[in-house]
Design brief:
By secondary structure, the chain is of the alpha+beta class. The protein is about 35% helix and about 30% strand. The protein has two domains: about 5-140, no CATH class; about 145-210, Arc Repressor Mutant, subunit A (Orthogonal Bundle). The chain has helices at about 20-25, 55-60, 90-95, 120-130, 150-155, 160-170, 180-190, 190-210; strands at about 5-15, 30, 35, 45-50, 65-70, 75-85, 100-105, 110-115, 135-140. Strand 5 (about 65-70) and strand 6 (about 75-85) form a beta hairpin. Helix 6 (about 160-170) crosses helix 8 (about 190-210) and helix 7 crosses helix 8.
Length: about 210
Amino acid sequence: MIDECLVAEFRIDGDDCPLARATKLVPVTIDASPPQLRADGNVLLYFSTPPDDRLPSTLDADEDIRYLHVTRNDDAYTYRCLSKHPCVVHELVDVGFLVESMQYDDGGATMRGAVVGNDVLRGVMEKAGQTVGIQLQRVYPLRADEESSIGRVWNLTPAQEESLHVAYEMGYFELPRTITAVDVAEELDISKSAFLERLRRAQQSLFGTLYG
């Protein structure tokens, strides 16, 4: 049994995938679940964004996107589709990277996941070095007591859990509030709208778990 598990975060720039291309044209942040690779090489995508009617038409015009479906509500748009473009993340998955979440913005993507042991991390790093545009942002150990973390219990994504944790540590939820959403967003290195979107989604998950 291997006791050591590492959390790693990579940044991908220069990848010509449809979601990255779309964020060059439309200034939105896309929160995506790990892409699912089909046996025929096509990729199933599931992702969400703040409401923006420019993105559906941009994706629909992309020749690599097929079967696009959009669910619209006041807080967010949720997308499901098939992409004919191979996702670069699968190159890291093949050598042991367990991708948990992806976020696209400004023509690139940030992916977060786990690596079991330093030997696997070295293999992932070697593969990343061979792939143009992938850089390691940070890596840190996953504590043994985090397997039953808040995120797993309350059905939060890693990005949502991180945003809640940082906001709480900075005093965003204290009364009277002395920290603004801009302050928390700067600490997270994301936009104010992206932070507020994560916060709303986290609250929705929390309340949904509480009240069924």
